[in-house]
Fold each of these.
Amino acid sequence: MKLTYSMLREYVDTSFNAEQIADKLTMTGFELEEITEVEGDKVLDINIMANRGDGASVIQLAREFLAKVPNATPTELFLRAEKRFPANDTGNRDIWSKTSAEIQTQTCTRFSCRIFENIQNGPSPEWLQQRLRQIGQRPISLLVDLTNYVMMETGQPLHSFDLDKLAGERIIVRNALDGEKLRTLDGTDHELHPHHMVIADAERAVALAGIMGGEDTEVSASTTRCLLESAHFVNTSIRRTRKELGLFTEASYRFERHVDPEGTTAALNRFAELYLEINNNSPVGGIVDVIAAKPPLVQLTVFIKRASRLLGMEISLDQAESYLRRLGFAIVGKSPDSLEVIAPTWRSDILREEDLIEELGRVHGYELIPEELPIGSTPIGGPQGFELLTDDIREAALRCGLDQCISHSLRDIHPLDAEGTRTQVRTPHSPEMAYLRNSILPSLCDAVRKNNAENIHIFEIGRIHNDETESTQLGVISSGSFENPTWRESDPTSADFFTLKGTIEQIAHAIQLPVSYRRTTTDPRFHPTRQARIIFGKSEVGIFGQIHPLIAVKTDLSPTAVMAEITLDPLKTEQTGVPTSKAISRNPAARRDIAILIKKEVPYAEIDQAIVKSGGETLENHWLFDVYEGKGVPDGQHSLAIALQFRKLGENFTDEEANGLRDKIVAALELLGATLR
Amino acid sequence: MEQITHVQNDAIAAIQAAKNTEELRAVELDFLGKNGKLSALMKGIGALPNDQKPLFGAKINEAKNAVQSMLDARVQDLKVGELSKQFEAERIDITMPGRAPRYGREHVLQQTTNKIKRVLGSMGFVYKESPELEDFKYNFDALNYPPDHPAMDEQDTFYVTDDKVLRTQCTALQGRVFESTEPPLRVFTVGRTFRNEAVDRTHSHTFHQVDCFMIDRGISMAHLKGTLGVFAKAMFGDEVKVRFRPDFFPFVEPGVDYAISSPKLFNGRWVELGGAGLIHPNILEKYNIDSREFSGFAFGLGVERIPMMAYGVDDLRNFLENDQRFLAQFA
């Protein structure tokens, strides 16, 4: 809402300059967007809160300023505005009888109008044209300019019809007929339906109620008789029609928010007094005023102690009374701790005591509220349960040297999408963001390409939507060397199935869950013989492996890239994060290395299991440290070198004991077909 | 006797002539070894009269000890010299670039989130999460939005179905909490929100929000201001001040937007951070919380705003594009 400093000064007497006024308005909630200078006057652009449609008027902004600044005084004009611009005479009775208005719809609560005759609808006087230009409007003609100007002042939208073009010279407010046609002022044709409200004459629709007039009945330079409409409509009806027909006007803006239901005649009077100042001897008719529904009377009680307690600052009864009076509330009752008030009709936002408490706080000043810390019971704060587990997993991924990504959830289809139904947004902003991702992997793939990096090891934990279920997922893509090229010979290790497997195991260890795997070949995104399902505790949580070479081509990823997709929600049922402690031996360990020849198709897991089982409790640790095939090893076999480390609690291992255990393990491996090398 | 002195002098000369520890080792063998020159003198002891034998023996030992200790000292000297030569040979250019081990970099939004979690968690607010694809009723109805209210205009929402929307505000958590938790309560969340907006430097259809709320007996705007004060100081430094300004959100009454200023930041201007207020009594009553007994506050703000203001990031798009050049500046 734009207004000039001069327009406001007609209603308030103050020594404040435009910037100071804007500051005060900002602190009442009517925030200054910007202040500019146009044709020698300061123009304030004020942001109107969604629940304060009344604020889209000079008078109500003046009221807010006067309430906030006690030593500013209302002008004569403001006092007359308070009395709704009482007219000296009620207008020409002869003209009065020349028209009538009828309301046939529930979405119009009041229709007021009056007739002007012997009009010369030429250009407006310069002062009016200038003010309209200053607030960004184009001057058109006297009648149009005055309707706009009075709307800015009072907040009441007005519309002027050429009376000679109204069939029957009368008005009916009704619902449109099905298929009824109307060409609005902007030249567009509309086909209307019964849920659209129209202003009609005796024969047809002549305006879209509360939104825009019709072209046929528009006032022009040749207009000599005019019917000026000032009506009140229900906001939801206007809003629906405006959205449907795509017509956004100053009038619809106000009606959608809320216009004072009691303000129709005041605006007609203000129009008449400005009109007569310009066109002194042209006859003006009396007001035709049809009231279909009276606005509800909102009577409320505010308890001052409760107000002070909720606001966190002391406000006295006298202060409260003064603040509410200045805002236009009528005080109808008073006790030592309470006020009974009637809310002004323009304040549709006032519905209960708390709304009054806000009014008291606003005028008293929120800057007076002290800073205190909350009282009462304080629980243990921060993340707990699943949220804490997610944090632990994220920490573990970071410690594994993976860089964290955070990406958009909305995206397009991608070769790395998981199997399953994707969730689609009904009205996407663009096709590239029409779907919610159903896997983290496409996001990570984008990140790899964004960085154009050969060596990249990244993860993201975020929400995914698959098969109409929202889950939290960890995704990893690991590709290339773990060390960036340097001037020294580089670490030759680069990402593969087993580096990622190790990472997954570290993560599982961080949340104290055992990890196991299940062989799989069926996920088409992964290399069919290099993929595995992941099981944390008892829950299957996802899949990992090397990318399928054909997918690698499609996605521009390296064919050696490895990926993991782990859904965390199943872990909600797992017991996590409870380590068990065992006594640590202070005695030396005994190490025995063995090398065995064994058929390659024997899975290492079986060898591992046999070692653990036969090694017993004193086998502290064992690890595979060499895998060899080739010269000296029979075809179809490989040689595995395994270190065995034995240790006892409180006792040293003798050579004989260590050798004995080693032999026992070898014997167990021989059952699997292994021979000692 | 003279012979001893003679041999000892020879040994001393040889020690002094030796250029390195190897030559010294030869000298050692030559004079002090089993068959060395000083040891050889011992063989002459038999020819001496008995009364001179002990004296002669002692003299040889004395000479041996003197040579040995001189030799040891000389070895020490040479070793130091040789080490320093070695050090010189092993000199490196310490200005050559370091070789970084892998270090998982945390995303700047994560760092900010962690900071938020630490501060609010330490004040007793429990961290909770709720769905991004939210029921319409939690996103709007539960938050006192009247049907068809103009405030909805400000959030052009992504709908999946009539009942499911991508949440436009993390405040959507409130209804879920009030349904399942009796007051007193203190809860906060950090999460992703969506609005159907075009993307540019300062707008995105996807961004993150903190939402924090509590209900207890006697909670006031002063407690809200105090909590925000602590929060803002933790985020932006000890000199930060908080200002309230009236504003409208359907889920709070009174409603404010809060701004912060600091002599060190934003040229001392007030910069709006987010919306806040006392939880609307309609909401309390909807969840059978007696608004005469209990009151509560709520505040929210954009997570991205924090690094934008604190670090001077001027393009919102950076946060979700995963460009390592951007992210590596912060971790």
Note: The radius of gyration of chain B is 42 Å.
Amino acid sequence: MTSIEQQSSSSAQENGLAIINSKAPFSSTHGKDALDIALIFGSFEQKVSLFFQGDGVYQLIADQDGSLLAIKDYLKTFSAFEFYDIEDIYVCQQSLSNRQLDENFHIDEVKVLSSIEFSAALNRHQHVLRF
Amino acid sequence: MAIALTFQNKIIPTDKQGYLLDHLLWQKDLALVMAEHDDFVLTDAHWEVIDFVRQFYLTYNTSPAIRALTKAMKSEFGEAKASSRYLYKLFPEGPAKQATKYAGLPKPARCI
């Protein structure tokens, strides 16, 4: 976890926790740490939304296997999100196109948003954790 | 207290609470030995949950905590078996905790 931000605007009360993923998978523990927090919130019926931007978008791209690097492939756990009631998963379109990535994700429920929509969705959350 | 788990003349490495350190060493007969160490009797109903938890882990690379476990079991076994009440009857010390142990998986990080 690198920072916690509290939204001050009064319109931002409705949506619980937002977790921003901004790092590529497997090169650091950021992605796995973010996932652990998301699953804990899900286990306790707390609403959580996931945001992927910057190099974080690589966490959603299909056909990767961390176990080739002798790292536990935590991306496989994304497919279990339905059991944790994690349904709001957003990815920044700009970040994808900057990296010339197609919308070829390994889970289905991903919503691709423009930069403006992405910020707006983020702003609906009361708490934001950035990884 | 570490438990020395001996199975087919080999020592199987476990953590302090008896969870396997390498889930690939698991097999059904080993689960029986582990349960025996705990004076715990595994019935068909227990096996149903143990097999389910193991399959969950192999699919999603994580041991399910209780809530995710009941939600996932609902689609497979229906409402009656997908309640924490049913699961706690089978595994009084915590279904996710105990079922993952006999399934040879790491203890779920998320406590219950």
Note: The radius of gyration of chain A is 14 Å.
